[in-house]
Amino acid sequence: MAIRIATGGISQETNTFQWEPTSLSDFQKGSSKIDRGEEILALDGTGTIYGGIVGEAKKQGVELIPTTFGRAVPGGRVSKEAFETMCDEIVEGIRAAMQEPGGIDGVLLGIHGAMALEHNDDGEGPLLTAIREVVGPELPIVAPLDLHTNLSEEMMEECDAFVGYKHYPHIDTAETGARAMQILIDTINGEIKPQMAYVKVPLIAPNQSMVTTWQSPLKKAIDRAVEMEQEDDVVAATVLGGFPFSDVPYTTVSTILVTNDNPEKAKAYAEELAQMCWDLRADFEIIPTPIPDAIAEAMAGEPGSTYVLADISDSGASGTAGDGTAALKGLLEADARSASVAQIMDREAVEACIEAGVGATVTLTVGGKHDDFHGDPVDVTGMVRLIHEGSFEMGGVMGAGTRSSRGRTVVLEINGPGGIELQLTDLRGHPNDLNFFRAFGIEPTERRILVLKSAAHFRAAFEPIATKVIEIDAPGISTPKLTSLDYKNLRRPVYPLETDFDFTPEAILT
Ligand SMILES: [Zn+2]
């Protein structure tokens, strides 16, 4: 009889500095979605974790029993209702599968790793506990993890093996999903006996210091982890950068080693990777460029060049407001030409433009409305060039084969043709794909300046077309200046909030 594996999960990255909770309806709009049953299996071949999970299950002849998989654009804490609704569906789906002939042999969980709930600082721990209560202590549970996971003790206690992404931008989501499935199948077949060890390093780091398209400090440790995985009894070696914009006790850099029944090696290697990160702690600092300097450099560039100005402090993929105005204000002040901004979330402005209609000239106050952390509203006058319902196909690599949407989208042309193109949207976006411009009639390779509200995921698609990427210094709740954030719940001491303390890694076996 074929191996039977139940699967499902909840995936969201929580920025606790975002005041607006992520509700059940937020899981069902724009690029967010709740897939149920066969819809999960239809993710086969996409650039998502399930692209790999489903593909690998098929390849290995495993019967996959899908329950519910909810994923939401990063944002505020997940509401109690949203969590309980999806958690119950997953648990009930697993319970039903256990009662069918053949039962189940394991659970493959689709999670992110940095979810926090309205009623709990941890999201994945409680989900794992709820599942563990149904399946009992023996049945193996395996999950892939996002590189930005804030690892909790509860997660480690309830899961048999984790394997994390090794790339940021996360171009290896499908590959990691497939790897998790392989580990689960090998465990079920008795070919391996996963032994995990982990270390939480008292270090929080800005996202940009985790990027793997350059030799960032995190990449140096990840490279060593990849080397470790070449050894026969190392099942998975993972270095997690953590998600620094979650003010919860679990937010740190962490390491997880899974060996095949070799506790000494699991412990030693988890400690070695943790020591590497700790030794490099000072290198994790990121110093962004003042906006006027970035714009001046781009405007002085060679004809035909394209400069990406990354608004890393208002990154849609980090759960920020998405309506930060600092970059737009800078472009207006510099009278920039050939500049295209993706994008500012402002439903009110979108509605005003739609009411005025294509071709109309409008004067609006845009952005800076969601909270007090992303700059003041800015006055603009421009021509409504395009009104679009907002959805489009992702070109990839990330998210290839899926559709993205920021709700209704307007392109406003400011200072005439060749001036500033401003995209106004209903919903927060995550511009990590060239189609965030092309879908709206803008050819990114033909613009001098592209403003992207993105921490790092944009790099997969935009580094190849960019003359230069400049990370700009704007206000926002995904700022790399971590010491400026008002943390209250982190475990202390933690670098760089405290700098004068010692740390010696001691791995915990689970
Ligand atoms: Zn991530």
Short descriptors:
single chain; 510 residues; alpha/beta; Rossmann fold; 2 domains; 9-stranded mixed sheet; 6-stranded mixed sheet; 13 helices; 21 strands; 26% helix; binds zinc ion
Largest sheet features: 9 strands, mixed
Number of domains: 2
Biggest sheet, strands in spatial order? 10-20-11-19-12-18-17-14-13
Mean pLDDT comes to: 97
Helical fraction equals 25-40%
The small molecules bound here are: zinc ion
**Number of strand segments:** 21
What's the CATH class of the largest domain, please?
Alpha Beta
Rounded to the nearest angstrom, the radius of gyration is 23 Å
pLDDT < 50 runs, ≥5 residues? none
CATH architecture of the largest domain: 3-Layer(aba) Sandwich
Do you know the CATH topology of the largest domain?
Rossmann fold
What's the CATH superfamily of the largest domain, by name? Response regulator
**End-to-end CA span:** 31 Å
How large a portion of the residues is in β-strands, by DSSP E? 15-25%
The number of helices is 13
**Category by helix and strand content:** alpha/beta
Overall shape: globular
What report would you give on this structure?
There is one protein chain. This protein has 510 residues and is of the alpha/beta class. The protein folds into two domains: 4-284, Rossmann fold, CATH 3.40.50.2300; 289-479, no CATH class. 26% of the residues lie in helices and 23% in strands. The chain contains 13 helices and 21 strands. Strands 10-20-11-19-12-18-17-14-13 form a nine-stranded mixed β-sheet. Strands 2-3-1-4-5-6 form a six-stranded mixed β-sheet, sandwiched between helices. Strands 8-9-7-21 form a four-stranded antiparallel β-sheet. Helix 2 (49-59) packs across helix 6, helix 3 (80-99) runs parallel beside helix 4 (124-135) and helix 7 runs antiparallel to helix 8 (263-279). The protein is globular and about 65 Å long. The chain starts with a strand and ends with a strand. The relative contact order is 0.14. The mean pLDDT is 97. Zinc ion binds at residues 146-148, 170. Residues 146-148, 170 line the site of zinc ion.
